[in-house]
Write a structure and sequence with these properties.
Distance between the termini: 119 Å
Helix content: 10-25%
Shape: globular
Number of helices: 6
Structural class: alpha+beta
């Protein structure tokens, strides 16, 4: 092959001709060298053209490999941290969800801490004060009238612990200074004060408490206090108007009124392993409302507010309008027992279980007996499964709540007159109330 090379670099316009000689045996190598663009031939600052040579120690490919390796390490580290955090969150969520599927019931007090014994000075039992829920009422009141009627009977309760204090709400139940509140408000306290609506402050003593039902009775030395009127929780129905008065988030907001409805009745709620039968309401309850009144449309206290439901982790949907109160029927039994003896006597039972409303052939209604416990009052009176209770204490009954409401008027050892229907005829019986063994109703 013949090669043609320009005679000088300035002669760049001449034609280049390549020919191929098949007779030559040696390898043919073609090379071409062109000058670099002027921009790439500029010397660095402080460097002459003669000094500009390829610089050792600047391997671009190796530098990019190093950068890439660093980025990969950073990404891996971030991924590891996020993975560990995600696992931790899932474990925490799973633990909390085991309680009630992502939600749980919350006291307003300091129950998560070891509060120690409650050492508030005691007050002697045997007083005459009693809570007696009324089954009658006047006309419905406006929210303003309800507040004006009930708020003077609502107090702020402050319990002093070792290095802190807990505050809640209470309700005056007698003119001579008996007050009901939640036990968890005063739990672990060594002293307690009560602040009245009028601004007067009294030292309170502890008459007694029932931890399982979260109720406590306090006593202050005062006379002529405005006692609240209690109504029967057994007469509530879902959808009834409901109001709450309390001290949410501390004493600065004491006397706050909120409203709503009765959302459910006889709601069984498991709180720390204890099942409580409560009234559910959507009237706003916040920390500090504990021990305060749940009020019906007639200005009567029908419950003592105790707990609310909350989300168990931060990213769960907010929980609104799920508050719970101890029914006034339960409050009356426990508070009256604590004032009288300092202990809670078991509620007496009839020894019968009833279910549902039954319409008789003559058009009368009643509740059907589905079980009778041997040896208790119903059995001794001759009541049988299948009988229909038409009336009790002279009142017609058509629901389970009617029977419970009438039963609560009586104490152990008393008899309730009843009319039952059996095989086409009406029978009169008297059922003795006895201490519970293993019965319902």
């Amino acid at each position: 092959m013949d090669e043609y090379s320009p005679q000088n670099q300035e002669d760049t316009a001449q034609e280049v001709v390549l020919t191929y000689d098949p007779g030559r045996q040696d390898a043919v190598v073609l090379t071409y060298e062109a000058p670099l663009p002027p921009a790439m031939c500029r010397p660095l600052p402080g460097e002459t053209a003669e000094e500009k040579q390829p610089r050792p120690g600047r391997p671009r490919r190796k530098r990019w490999k190093t950068v890439t390796l660093v980025l990969v390490c950073v990404v891996c580290a971030v991924g590891l941290v996020l993975g560990v955090g995600y696992i931790g969150i899932q474990v925490a969520r799973s633990v909390l969800e085991d309680r009630t599927g992502g939600f749980y019931y919350e006291w307003d007090g300091l129950e998560d801490e070891d509060l120690g014994p409650t050492t508030i000075a005691s007050y002697p039992t045997g007083g005459d004060a009693r809570v007696e829920p009324l089954e009658t009422h006047g006309d419905a009141l406006s929210p303003q009238e309800i507040y004006e009627k009930v708020n003077p009977s609502v107090v702020a309760v402050v319990a002093y612990l070792d290095y802190q204090m807990a505050s809640g709400t209470g309700v005056i139940i007698s003119e001579d200074g008996y007050i009901v509140t939640n036990y968890h408000v005063v739990e672990g306290g060594s002293a307690c004060d009560v602040l009245l609506y009028s601004g007067l402050q009294y030292e309170a003593k502890l008459v007694g408490y029932d931890e399982e039902n979260d109720l406590a009775v306090l006593k202050v030395e005062a006379e002529g206090l405005p006692a609240a009127e209690f109504g029967s929780s057994d007469m509530l129905t879902v959808g009834d108007k409901a109001y709450a008065i309390g001290n949410p988030l501390g004493l600065e907001l004491r006397g706050t009124l909120t409203d709503g409805i009765i959302s459910a009745i006889n709601r069984d709620v498991d709180v720390d392993g204890t099942t409580m039968t409560l009234i559910q309401t959507n009237a706003a309850l916040n920390s500090g409302n504990s021990g305060g009144p749940l009020i019906n449309a007639y200005g009567q206290v029908v419950g003592i507010n105790t707990i609310k439901m909350v989300a168990s982790y931060a990213d769960e949907a907010a929980v609104e309008g799920l508050g719970f109160a101890i029914p006034s029927s339960t409050v009356a039994h426990i508070v009256n027992s604590l004032i009288a003896t300092g202990e809670v006597e078991p509620q007496p039972v009839l020894g019968i279980t009833v279910m549902g409303m039954v319409t008789l052939p003559d058009g009368n209604t009643g509740v059907q007996v589905i079980e009778v416990t041997e040896g208790l009052g119903g059995d001794l009176a001759g009541v049988q499964a299948g009988d229909v209770i038409v009336s009790a204490d002279g009142e017609s009954v058509s629901t389970n709540s009617d029977v419970l409401r009438i039963r609560r008027r009586y104490t152990t050892g008393e008899e309730i007159p009843m009319v039952i229907y059996r095989d086409g005829e009406y029978l009169e019986v008297s059922v003795l109330l006895m201490a519970p063994v293993d019965a319902a109703a």
